[in-house]
Every structure is written in structure tokens, then in C-alpha cells.
Amino acid sequence: MAGAAEQPSIEVSAMSEIQVVPDEVILYLAAHTRDKHLSIAKRDNDEVTTAVMEVFPRYQIPDEDIKITDLDLTPDYGQFNSRSETPIAYDFVRSMRIRLTNFDHIEPLLSDVIQAGLNDVKRIHFRVSNQRKYQFEARKLAMTYAREKAVHLTELTNMKLGSPLRIEEGIESNWDAGGFGGTMVRMESDRPQGDQQQIQPEKTKLMLVALQKDKTKDEKSARILAAPGQITISAQVTVKFAMTPE
Questions:
Q1: Residue 157 CA from chain centroid, whole number
Q2: Is 50 left (phi over 0), alpha (psi -120 to 50) or beta?
Q3: Of all residues in the chain, what percent are helix, strand and coil, respectively (each to 5)?
Q4: 7 φ, ψ to 5°?
Q5: pLDDT tens-digit profile of 213-234?
Q6: Name one Pfam family in it (predicted).
Q7: What's the structural domain count of the chain?
Q8: pTM of the complete model
Q9: In this structure, what DSSP letter does residue 50 have?
Q10: 220 and 116 inside one domain
Q11: What is the C-alpha separation between 114 and 209, in angstroms, rounded?
């Protein structure tokens, strides 16, 4: 009605976080080969990939958890200031994605694929597979916090909290649960930093993951990689409630 007083209301925001132990890990691997002949670069890559793929059945990894994700062929024409008209070499990269649910297999699996010729571990990513369940819990908790805050503020003004008039949810950004983030395993080159474009795959060395001959050290390394910690699942809501006199 025109001229009617606006209904008293209160708007509050609340955020909740719950900690969840991840139940799966995604390994992002890649085989890099390089040669001045394209056919040789591809042949070498096929051999490495075949040897690596033969490792996975030993760990009883289902076929649906093994996926070739990318195939990249890049001709190298040399440095910017001395580029050749024809490629001086070809870089052939085949990337793959492996899902594991047994964290005890991480270290031995990585050791085996490196022995098979793999030369790039891009990322190790611990995740929560059932994000939907935990997202509901976080959202419910955020709504509880919002109502508690609204009730308290309303009582301080000698009013009574009414029904919700509007509910807004913040954009979910639970990257670890949804398939992002994770622990990085980096590669380090023996070559100078200024010559990165000419890095030879066979001259790279893997950091963090290493074969251990000593049993005690081996078990300690396995425990470190098999301890993913916890992932934070969060939710944020903004709720507008009506207020009425007591």
C-alpha cells in the first residue's frame, strides 16, 4: 500500500566450515620425450607410456580410474633471437590422470612409474569424493549460525524475529573437494634457468619422490605421502528476516 511503513527487518550473514578427511587422491602424470625427429620422439613416448600403463594393474587400479587426458606436440624452433626456419626438435608430451583410494600405494606407485621411465609428476591432489554430503552439512550449519545471530540482534532491539524474507548463498569455493588444489610435486632441472626452453627431459630430476633402499626411511616416506590431513568444506549464507514487536 502506498505510504505504508516498511516492515522492520534484519539481514545477517554467516559462514561455516567443517573439516573432512579426504578419501581419494588424484595423480597427474606426464611422459615427456624429445628428439630432432618427430617419429623418434613419438616412438620413445609410446614406449614410456606403455611401460607406465603396465604398472597400474599391479596396484589393482580400475580401468575407469586411469585416463589419458592430453597429448601435446610442440615443435622447437630455437631461441627467440636465433630461430630456425625448420624445427630443431620436437617435444612430445602425453598426460594422464590416475585416481587412487588406497593412500599407502602412493609412494610405491610413483617409484614404480618413475622406474618405468616417467619423468614428470605434475600434481598430487587429495580430494573428498562425496562433496555433496558435506556441503549440505556446512550449509545447514551456516543457516543455524545466521538464525542465532539474527535472534540475538533482534532481542537486543526488543523485537521478535519473524519468518525469512530472502535467502542468498555465497558462491561455493571448496576447490579441494570439487577437484582443484592439492599438493604440488615439482620438477627441477640441471640446466640454468635462462635456458628453460631447451630443457631435455632426461636431464630433469624428481624432487620429493625418491627410491629409498633403507626400509625405515622407506616406511617413513610412505607415511608422509599417505597423510593427507583434512580438507575444509565451507558455506556462506545471507538471510533477511522480518521483525515484529514483542
A1: 46
A2: alpha
A3: 35, 35, 30
A4: -65, 130
A5: 444 555 555 555 555 678 889 9
A6: SIMPL
A7: 2
A8: 0.65
A9: H
A10: yes
A11: 9
